[in-house]
Amino acid sequence: MAYKISEECISCGACESECPVGAISAGDDKYVIDADACVDCGACAGVCPVSAPNAE
Ligand code: SF4
Ligand code: SF4
């Protein structure tokens, strides 16, 4: 399991520095999470203004 960022992402960048394992980076049209690095802590979802990161 890993969090995934939906198309709702507005690329504000707020979540990137919150991730304890550096799993979030800017993608082509939205931010993306490296599923292999994500430890399911939920910190990204907590800071996102549009609730784009979701557990899948
Ligand atoms: Fe990083 Fe935690 Fe979000 Fe996974 S759930 S991408 S570990 S902040
Ligand atoms: Fe996208 Fe939300 Fe991260 Fe901002 S905090 S870059 S809107 S996922």
Task: Give structural notes.
By secondary structure, the protein is mainly beta. Helices cover 9% and strands 21% of the residues. The protein has one helix and four strands; from the N terminus they run βββαβ. The chain has one helix at residues 43-47; strands at residues 3-5, 24-26, 31-33, 53-55. The protein has a two-stranded antiparallel sheet with strand order 1-4. β2 (24-26) and β3 form a beta hairpin. The structure holds iron/sulfur cluster (2 copies). One iron/sulfur cluster binds at residues 3, 18-21, 23-24, 33, 38-44, 53.
* Count of separate DSSP helical elements: 1
Sketch the topology as an H/E string, one letter per element: EEEHE
Average pLDDT for all residues: 97
What spatial order of strands do you see in the largest sheet?
1-4
Task: Give the arrangement of secondary structure elements.
Blueprint: E1 3-5, E2 24-26, E3 31-33, H1 43-47, E4 53-55
Antiparallel strand pairs: 1-4, 2-3
Task: Give a short summary of the structure.
The chain is mainly beta and 56 residues long. It is built from one helix and four strands; from the N terminus they run βββαβ. The strands form two sheets. A two-stranded antiparallel sheet has the order 1-4.
Please tag this protein with its features:
two-stranded antiparallel sheet; binds iron/sulfur cluster; 4 strands; 9% helix; 56 residues; mainly beta; globular
